[in-house]
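Tutorial handout. Part one gives the primary structure; part two gives the three-dimensional structure as tokens.
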Amino acid sequence: MTAGPKEGVRRWKAVCAYDGTTFSGWQSQSGVTAIQDIVEARLGVILKTPTRIHASGRTDAGVHARGQVFHFDAAWPHDPGKLITAFRMGLPEAIQICSLRAVPANFHARFTAIGKRYDYHVHLGDADPFTRPFCWINFKPLDVPAMQAAARVLQGRHDFRAFSALNGAERNDTVRDLRRLEVSRRGRSIHLTAEAEGFLYKMVRSLVGALVSVGEGKLTVGQVRSILHARQRTPAIQTAPPQGLFLTRVDYR
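Part two.
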């Protein structure tokens, strides 16, 4: 955990939304355009000094957010309202600062978070140009009750190693409490919601991929249960495309 701000410097909590379509993801990376780089560059102009931000977590290329949280330390002697106004004026239209406020020095966007909510959108059949960039278009009929039954199997505290894309050395911290995993349908739109204290790498997209496979009849509910208990990634678990995924909310005490 990073140290608290120095004397005369306050810690600021920001909530931002973004359309991730054209970005390489949240985290700064060499040679590509990341959301973190754009936000830090704007802060550097406002504060006239390089400023590092710390997010609740990273989102992959193409993933969107309605409630990403980040914090930074800065000496800002003016009204906080002027800071958010200056912030908003210099960002591209695909990125919006939703709120900004001073917080206690021990706040950390990542380490003091107690939960996250992700939402995923599947559209049955072709979609209009305003929907298409923000959903997974599926031309096959989906058995929503079967998807809901599989979601109930996955909900709860489990080892989700089989539903992650972890690489390299084995990790021991693959147990998560999936407090909520719901599937609902309205017309041609299928909406999936996942809430947990934290998620593994590509875990939500893997859960969605598994549920869609159940809806298509490629997997049974029993097979999903067996894969979960086997704790081993299998090609039967597809990773849902990024454009349907939204980081909706990050929770703090």
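Part three, for discussion. The longest strand covers residues 113-124. The chain is about 25% helix and 30% strand.
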